[in-house]
Amino acid sequence: MQLPDLSVEELRDGLSSPELIIGREIIFLPATSSTNSVACGLAEKGQREGAVIIADSQTHGRGRLGRQWLSPAGKNLYLSAIIRPALSPADAAVLTLMAAVSCVSAIGKASSVPVSIKWPNDLMVSDRKMGGILAEMKTEAENIAYVVIGIGININSDAPDFPDDLKTTATSARIETGSLQSRTLHALEIIKSLDAWYKVLIRTGRKPVVDSCRRLCSTIGQRVTVASEQAGLTGTAEDIDSDGALILRLADGAVTKISAGDVTIIKTRVKGQEPRGKLC
Ligand code: BT5
């Protein structure tokens, strides 16, 4: 079987609608350091909203807090979209959730892999990570100058392709479906979905995005530990609030709101609460 590759021509053909904001310009790079770095550089030089940078491989693909994102050539998707939303920087957290919701529905359409969101930025299949989102923002005075939404999704990596530290934690669309998958189709659906959800957000506000994220979020109902800049906390993830923050009930019954952090699921399930995350 021929490896379904990434066809930039097909991608541009599929994104020719004049209504598009995200995806109206596609910049393809065979290899780069990090599509987020390239996108930030272009945004600094005034690149208009909606450009998407896609690379076949990254030498310095990155996650949050300087972590590495494994980005081999010829296998997966690494893309970054530049947006300039008229939002307050304090409201920008919803953009990561918007990207996560977009990816879940896009992957569902492209390969039917049942992905859920581990708040705030992980794309999971059960307890394995298939993708992640890194949103980076530049502010000017009280406004957002630009946001780069970086998305990495494992499409055709096979189990032996992962290094030892990711072998038991990572997955791909190929591993989940048992067959090679089209990167072009996944990229197309992701960009179309990002565009659609971005329009919902700027025209209607964040409620539909947060509501959808709640439905797709497998963290809710689970016992979790959350490592944030302030502290490590353990409790039950109860909800995502209207700002996109995680609502955590602690052992003493107190409720706390977490705006950013790393969630680890503790494997016992809370009685009477089934985890969510199915596509509905
Ligand atoms: C993320 O960070 O999950 C955000 C990843 C964003 C990557 C995209 S690729 C396009 C764009 N350009 C960039 O340079 N970045 C973005 P975080 O939640 O911090 O998770 C990072 C952790 O995920 C690592 O420490 C590893 O444990 C794990 N990891 C690294 N590469 C992986 C992969 N390919 N698949 C699954 N897990 C991976």
Question: Topology, please?
Answer:
Elements: H1 8-14, E1 25-32, H2 35-44, E2 51-58, E3 77-83, H3 93-111, E4 116-118, E5 122-125, E6 128-140, E7 143-153, H4 164-167, H5 173-177, H6 183-204, H7 207-216, E8 222-227, E9 232-240, E10 246-250, E11 255-258, E12 262-269
Parallel strand pairs: 1-2
Antiparallel strand pairs: 2-3, 3-7, 4-5, 5-6, 6-7, 8-9, 8-12, 9-10, 10-11
Helix pairs in contact: 1-6, 3-6, 3-7
Bound molecules: biotinyl-5-AMP.
Could you please describe the fold and organization of this structure?
Helix content is 28%, strand content 31%. The chain has helices spanning 8-14, 35-44, 93-111, 164-167, 173-177, 183-204, 207-216, and strands at 25-32, 51-58, 77-83, 116-118, 122-125, 128-140, 143-153, 222-227, 232-240, 246-250, 255-258, 262-269. The strands form two sheets. Strands 1-2-3-7-6-5-4 form a seven-stranded mixed sheet, sandwiched between helices. It has a five-stranded antiparallel sheet with strand order 11-10-9-8-12. Helix 1 (8-14) runs parallel beside helix 6, helix 3 crosses helix 6 (183-204) and helix 3 (93-111) packs across helix 7 (207-216). Mean pLDDT is 92; it is low at 274-280. The protein binds biotinyl-5-AMP.
Distance between the termini: 33 Å
Which strands sit side by side, in order, in the main sheet?
1-2-3-7-6-5-4
Instruction: Give the proportion of residues in helices.
Output: 25-40%
The molecules bound to the chains, other than polymers, are:
biotinyl-5-AMP
Helix-strand makeup class: alpha+beta
> Unreliable segments (pLDDT under 50, ≥5 consecutive)?
274-280
Q: Count up the helices.
A: 7
H/E element string? HEHEEHEEEEHHHHEEEEE
What is the 3D form?
Answer: globular
The major sheet is characterized as: 7 strands, mixed
- What fraction of the residues are assigned to beta strands by DSSP? 25-35%
Number of strands: 12
**Cα Rg:** 18 Å
Average of pLDDT? 92
